[in-house]
Design brief:
Strand content: under 5%
Number of domains: 1
Order of helices and strands: HH
Length: 78
């Protein structure tokens, strides 16, 4: 929200004074900052997802195996 106020208020002030170039550059800067922040959030989310996947694999490989339902000496009809 601070980024929004930091960029939108000077943009509005500049355009109300008739300085459209400054207002436009402020708007462009605001969109670039938003784009970078969105990219950072996506990357962090992907990293977190990968860490959770690795933790699950580690848990599955270290968990004890289940007991077989059938005894070993039984013969199945094929």
């Amino acid at each position: 929200m601070q980024t929004f106020h930091h960029n939108i208020l000077p943009m509005v002030g500049a355009t109300s004074r008739g300085d459209w170039q400054l207002g436009g550059s402020r708007g462009e800067e605001m969109f670039q900052v938003t784009e970078v922040l969105n990219f950072a959030v996506r990357q962090i989310s992907d990293i977190e997802t990968n860490i959770v996947a690795v933790e699950r694999i580690a848990e599955y490989t270290t968990s004890p195996t289940e007991v077989s339902i059938l005894p070993r000496n039984i013969v199945l009809d094929r």
